[in-house]
Amino acid sequence: MAEIRLEKVRKVFDRKVVAVNDVSLTVKDQEFTVLLGPSGCGKTTLLRCVAGLEQVDGGRIYIGGRDVTFLPPRQRRIAMVFQSYAVFPHLTVFENIAFGLRMQRRPDAEVRQRVHQAAELLHIADLLERYPSQLSGGQRQRVAVARAIAVHPEVLLMDEPLSNLDALLRLEMRAELKRLLQDIQATTIYVTHDQVEALSLGDRIAVMRDGQILQYDTPLAVYDHPANIFVGGFIGNPPMNFLRGQLQHRNGQLEVHTNGGTLPVPTHMRSALEARPQAEVIVGVRAENIEPRTQEAPHTLRGTVLVVEPLGSHNLLTVRVGDEHIKVTTHADFRPRSGEILWLHLYPDKLRWFDPETGQAILASK
Predict the structure, then answer these.
(1) Is the pTM value of this prediction over 0.85?
(2) Which residues contact 358 (CB under 8 A, 6 or more apart)?
(3) Domain coordinates in residue numbering, the chain
(4) Cβ atoms of residues 213 and 172 within 8 Å
(5) Residue 366 has what pLDDT?
(6) How far is CA 103 from the centre of its chain?
(7) Per CATH, is 241-354 categorized as 2.40.50.140?
(8) What integer pLDDT is reported at residue 355 of this predicted model?
(9) How far is CA 252 from the centre of its chain?
(10) Among 45, 103, 117, 282, which is 20 to 30 Å from 358 by CA?
(11) Which whole-number Å values give the CA distances from 52 to 19, 69, 77, in the listed order?
(12) Which stretch of DSSP H or E encloses residue 319?
């Protein structure tokens, strides 16, 4: 068992810069957790704390039930893959992969077996006699990953391992990593600022900002039910749209009045919204959950097309609704002209509701 448990971990630099602010987190055995957030949010510092490369200023770290808070990295039974390839230029691929095993003083026969096993998993078995200068960037990154898994770590820590690769190679390596980690079944923490990597790779995602975790959940839950406006605006390409509106009663129904029109409040949200002291609310909706129409209909928002971006499989529209700009995803064969008037139907069950003062999600009453 290699569960990772953090209890109120805190890291401060120069006595004033709080990089990690009382973070508590549990990564289950063999789970793949992604730390996601913008630059400077503390995700790499938190990973380095788990690795033992940074000494924490508060809290405890447990790996497999052991308190490793003050243990050096070599005693934590972990392996780490860095953003830079960090391969030894004077060693062959074989010796690079074998390095950790040599440090553990493993028998030569076991070293050869594990090196070849790791190389086969990473599809670099035919490169074992080459030097890093003879490899491409993607091949060198494979060597770094192979070196990490060859020692059979209980925990694998990865700090933006794909960020130095070009887009096509990153796509290929992402699929390779997912297959590999399913095979080796190591408990993994993966740091990235790339939301596509996070959504496609992780079993769970921890979205971070200012040294804190704002939401920790499955990729689908983080995408579809963001805990606050920051998460909704950070996750997704394009990010979630937000409309500010006023709650109003009309003909016995609760509606939200915006500059572009009115939206009905779904039945399951009515009691939660009516219980709030203020009438103002923010409505969030994803671009793919908006249906553009050329004819006016009840409960649609009137908008003007500003930009049409053909993206092959679909088009991305920028539509001005009142004083807001809304992103709308459409079929590739639906291509309105700039300046054209559209009526936007927002699917009621896909609307997400937020408090304009706190930015936190308003959840349906149970």
Answers:
(1) yes
(2) 228
(3) 4-234, 241-354
(4) no
(5) 61
(6) 34
(7) yes
(8) 95
(9) 42
(10) 45
(11) 15, 8, 11
(12) strand 314-321
